[in-house]
Write a structure and sequence with these properties.
Length: 276
């Protein structure tokens, strides 16, 4: 195969990959609950299956707490929030597990799964503060952030494949450096800021969720102040989470709206009494 023909075939393959990416982007735009444009490629049922599979793996790898008092406490809080989830408001259809682990964290997955680590309770001092975290994690599911992240990774890989075709398959250290640079540029230019937007959005959606469920939204600020005492964290521009100060500022701006929802919830008799 002569050099010209080889390059023409390379370019054709790259163009096909690029067209596929453009078609996917055009066909998969959506809007988040906060009005942000989203990019989603994966059907919801497939995301749910992925969430269920991931949850089963976590259960196999991380011990579930034997402290039934802690478990019931967390379930009480989660079951108070779930009825606000329009897609699936039935707590009986969700699985909630408390894992014996020192990390101060929690998560929710597509497929209606919630996991809380016992280490969180060192910083979340009451039901409202625990509800802040669970509301935040459930908000990721509501806003389908997992779909966005997987779709972004798929599109990123397709873009790198295009670059690889254009650069050729020769054993060339410069080509490898260029591809590595593209990966680094994607990571710090797209992937991490994109994740920070997810976290900020989940904070705000979660705040509304907890307020509508009868949890005091003012406690969200106290929770993140407590969490800031957990130790040092990377600079905000290299983190998937907003800095503590940024997070607290955004929450305080949203609290007046959430406070009205909280007051309405209490008028309707929604005030959980989850005790540890």
């Amino acid at each position: 195969m002569n050099f010209l023909k080889y390059n023409m075939l390379k370019s054709a393959a790259a163009i096909k990959l690029l067209i596929a990416v453009i078609i996917a982007v055009t066909a998969s735009c959506a809007t988040s609950p906060e009005g942000r444009t989203q990019f989603k490629l994966i059907p919801d049922d497939q995301m749910n299956a992925m969430g269920v599979q991931s949850f089963e793996q976590i259960k196999q790898q991380t011990p579930i707490t034997k402290d039934q008092k802690v478990t019931q406490y967390v379930i009480c809080i989660a079951n108070s929030i779930i009825p606000q989830v329009a897609e699936n408001p039935n707590p009986e259809l969700w699985e909630i597990q408390v894992f014996e682990d020192e990390q101060a964290n929690a998560f929710a997955l597509p497929g209606y799964k919630i996991g809380v680590y016992t280490g969180l309770l060192k910083y979340a001092k009451n039901q409202d503060q625990v509800a802040t975290v669970i509301g935040h994690e459930v908000a990721h599911v509501i806003a389908k952030h997992g779909n966005e992240r997987v779709s972004s990774q798929m599109a990123t890989q397709a873009g790198l494949d295009v670059a690889a075709v254009l650069l050729g398959n020769e054993d060339n250290s410069n080509n490898a450096m260029i591809l590595a640079g593209l990966g680094l540029g994607v990571q710090y230019g797209i992937t991490l800021p994109f994740s920070r937007s997810h976290e900020s959005e989940a904070d705000l959606i979660g705040l509304d969720l907890m307020a509508k469920s009868g949890f005091n939204p003012e406690e969200s600020v106290t929770l993140w102040e407590n969490m800031s005492q957990a130790g040092s964290s990377p600079p905000e521009f290299m983190s998937t989470h907003p800095s503590g100060d940024t997070r607290i500022k955004q929450l305080r701006e949203r609290i007046p709206k959430a406070r009205l929802e909280y007051q309405q919830a209490m008028k309707n008799g929604h005030r959980p009494a989850c005790k540890l």
